[in-house]
Amino acid sequence: MEFNYAYKNSTAVSDRGSSTQMSFSPDTKRPPTYFIGELGKNVAFREAISALHDVVVSDLRFKPKDRTEYKQWRANQDQQDWQLIAAQRQDLANKIQPLQAELNQLNQNRYQRLSTFYKARQQYYNYLYEKDRDAWFVLDPVITVHPDEVFFECFSQDESSYGRLGASYEVFKTIKEFACGTTNIDYSAALYNEFQKIRSYKTTQFEIDPSGFEVKTTHEAAFKEVKIDLPDSWVRGFLQVSSAMALPATTFDLQPMDIHNICFVLRRHKEKTGPRGMRYHLKPGEPVRIVFEPWNIEVVCSRSPYQGSSEQVIRVWGRRRLHILERLIPIANKFTIHLLGTGMPSFYVADLGDMSFTLGLSGWTANDWAQAGNFDLMAPRADVDQWTQQLIFDALRENWVESPHSLAQRLDLSPTAVLGALGAYTQAGRAIYDLNKQVYRVRELSREPLPMERLRFANQREETATRFLSNNAVQVTSVKDTQGTLQLQGNVRDKSKTYNPALTIDPDERIIAAECTCNWYQQNKLYKGPCEHILALRMQHARQSQ
Length: 546
What we know:
Blueprint: E1 2-7, E2 12-15, E3 19-26, E4 34-39, H1 42-57, H2 68-87, H3 90-139, E5 142-145, E6 149-155, E7 161-168, E8 172-179, E9 181-186, H4 191-195, E10 203-208, E11 224-229, H5 232-245, E12 250-254, H6 256-268, E13 278-282, E14 287-292, E15 297-305, E16 312-316, E17 334-339, E18 346-351, E19 355-361, H7 386-399, E20 401-402, H8 404-411, H9 415-427, E21 431-434, E22 439-442, H10 452-455, H11 461-470, E23 474-482, E24 485-494, E25 497-499, E26 502-505, E27 511-515, H12 519-524, H13 532-545
Parallel strand pairs: 3-10
Antiparallel strand pairs: 1-11, 2-3, 3-9, 4-8, 4-10, 5-6, 5-9, 6-7, 7-19, 12-17, 13-14, 13-16, 14-15, 17-18, 18-19, 20-22, 21-22, 23-24, 24-25, 24-26, 26-27
Helix pairs in contact: 7-9, 8-9, 11-13
C-alpha cells in the first residue's frame, strides 16, 4: 500500500547552551495540523519520548546466529592443521617452510590490499542497518493534535508492540498556536540522540512547523517528496490495536516499584527452557501476585490490592517487552494494567501526571497484531445505518474527543448505536479509543480512506461466516437475555458437518465469551479471534432481531 508524503523541510534541531528548538516538518498533503509550544516538564517528556523510541526499535523475533566468521576461522584452522601434519614429515619440512613463509607474506599483502574494501563493506553494512532503522522511524510516527493534548503513536519493528504517548497542554509552559488534526512527520533516527540532550535548565521549544503548509512560490525551496510502500500488516496492526483497546478487560493498578521488580526478575534470570509465561494471580482485596515461569519466582505487590469482584489467574507471554517501561519508573505515579485474558493482548498505561504512556502488547512476541488477532471481529457489531454513523462521527469531530455516554446523551441515541458506529470508525482507522481517559478521539490514520476490502480480513473467517448466512446454514436455537447480556446458542451447517457455537454478548454488543465444537476453536480458543461459526451465529441473531 503506497502512501505519498510531502515535506517542505527536514526535521531540524537547534541546540544551544541555554535552549533547544525542535521543529518537526509535517506532511503538506494533509489538512493543516501544527503546534508550537515551550516544554515545561522537560525531563519527564525526555524519558517518555525515549520510551516511545524503545517501542519503535523493539524487535524480539528470533534471529539465528551469524556463523560466517566461525566457518571462515574453521576453514583456516583446518588448513593450518593439515599444514602442521605435513610439516611433521621430515622429508617435506624443508620445502614447506619457505613456501609457508611466502604464503603468509602473500596473505598479508592481500589483506593490506583489500583492507579498504573490508572497511567500506563494514561501513555499508552499518549504513544499511541505520537506514533500515530509519525507515521504521519514517513509517511509524503519527502525531495528533487535539484540544486537550498532543499524542504520538508508533509500532515496533516486529509489529508486536504498540506505543502511545499523550502529553496534555499542562506539560508546556506556553502554547502559541495549534490546529487540531493528525499528520505524519519527517522523523529521523538521529532525532533520538537530540532528545537525550533535553535538560531542565535549558528552554526547549517544540513545534510541528506550520510553515510547512505555505504555498510554494518562485525561488522557494521545493518540497521533499517521499513515497513509502507501507506493508498492509502495519496498517492492519494499527486497526487491530484500536479495536482491542475498546474490548472489556480485567483492570488493576500497580505501583512503579512493582514494575521495577518485574523487570528486575527478568534482568536477573534467563530462561533456557519453557514454559516462559508470567501469571497474574488476582484475588479480591488481596495484593496482586505475579509468578514467573519456569522458575516459579513470585513477586507480591504488597501496595497494589486487586479491587475486582472475582478471583482469577491470567497468564501472559512475551514478558521481556516490559523492559520498555523501565525508563518510566522514576517519573510514573502508577501503572494501570488491562488484561484481555490468558494469551490475549495486554495494555500497560503509565500515569505520568500530565502525560500518559500506553504500551500495547500482543498475546506473545511472535503473535503480531496484524496476522493472528482479529479483535475487530469481537468489537461492538450493532448495525447502524450510514446516515446515523456519519451523524455520530460528525458530532465527535466537533469536540475531537468525547465519551460514548456523552455522545449518546447529546445526540439522543442509544449507547449501543453510538458504540457500534464508533467501533466501525475505529476499524476504519478514523478514530481511536483512549484507554487512559476512557474516551474516543478522532484520529485519521491516512489522508484518503483506507481500502478496507484489503485491510479488514487477514483471513477468510468473516467472509466464510457471511457465506453461511447467504446459504441459510445458520440457526439460532436458544436466546437468553439476562439484564442486557445475551447468551446465544445455535448450529451451523458447514458442508457435511454441523457445528454448535455459543457466545455471550454484553450490553455494549461485545463478545465476552464464546465456544464452538469446530477444530479451529479447539486449537485456538479466542486467542486469534472467534471462529467463522461463532461469527455466523452472531450475525444471524442480529439479522433476526432486525
